[in-house]
Amino acid sequence: MMSVDTFTLSGKEASVILRLFEWDDACREALKQSAYDAIEPKSALGSFEPLADFSGHVHWLYYPDVESSAGLETLIAVRRITFGDELPQPEFDLRKLPQLRVLEFRGAVPDARHLNHPRLRYLEVEDLKAANLAFLAEAKELGAMSLRRCALTSLKGCEALGGLRELRLLGAKKLEDISGVGAASEIEILEIAGAKSLRDMSAIHSLGKLRYLFVEAEESSQAGLAWLANLPHLECAGLWLETTEVDWSVLARHPRLYDIVFFAHAGFELPDDEALLSVLQAHGKRVLKVTRFPKARRPGIRIEFDPPADLAAPKPLHAYQTNLLTPPASLV
């Protein structure tokens, strides 16, 4: 078997990964080249120590499979790390890497303290045991974050994240209080999914820069849709919660909203197509499609309007869900 080879990531990020299976002259020679984006050190290397003499060449560690974290502190040019299921031991304080900008955890669960990096800009993590976002008090440059199946009960700590533009909380079963999100006034993309304990989502109403909003909170309720007028940049919205009153003209007058799903209360009578189209198109917006969900727990509807003319390639709302839209390479 070769001691070194390369492969290319498919999808949006067409990056070349240099895989190091054994430490020999072939590996050393490959590291001197610049025809790769990331280094994947395999278990036979034992630790990061063999890479120390090439630290200036190592900017992205991809799925490091070494057992020991020894030598990681020497890789001072590392700007991005993508971890797999296991973290090298003993535990290493990632704040010791001065150039680190992007952290992705695909199964491994880090120590929350080590994520409080003052230069961190992009964070993806699963199953983190933190009740709120206070553990990010020093991560003031953070721009995009996805927390999946985490233990958050509140969004306390958002006030420190003044540069945050994209926040996704997926599988947020314990989340009860999102009042803190109002302090993150630069957010453009917000997704809260699986929030079975969330009752009040009014803090979202003040996020005037939102472009994409998705809230799945089955036990939550909102009085109506008038607050959408406070979000003039909103383009797509998925509101999987109860809406007690519906003023259709709010949607018709919105300057940019072109795709929205929402649910009314049980027993709500949706108007027929002719009446609905008359109201929705009364302010000059053209309706492309209306989809109804009569068998849902609550009567629901999706309305797709003609997108704003200045959008180069508008997509349906589901294209903006789940995965972070901010490419990590743009924040490195």
Any key phrases for this structure?
twelve-stranded mixed beta sheet, mainly beta, Leucine-rich repeat, LRR (right-handed beta-alpha superhelix), 3 helices, 332 residues, 15 strands, 7% helix, 25% strand, three-stranded mixed beta sheet
Describe the structure.
By secondary structure, this protein is mainly beta. Among the domains are: 1-104; 109-222, Ribonuclease Inhibitor (Leucine-rich repeat, LRR (right-handed beta-alpha superhelix)). It contains 3 helices and 15 strands. The chain has helices spanning 25-32, 248-253, 273-280; strands at residues 4-8, 16-20, 38-41, 60-62, 80-83, 102-105, 122-126, 144-148, 166-170, 189-192, 212-222, 236-243, 259-264, 287-293, 300-305. The strands form 2 sheets. A 12-stranded mixed β-sheet has the order 4-5-6-7-8-9-10-11-12-13-15-14, with helices on one face. A 3-stranded mixed β-sheet has the order 1-2-3, with helices on one face. Helix 2 links the parallel strand 12 and strand 13. The model has no long low-confidence stretch (mean pLDDT 94).
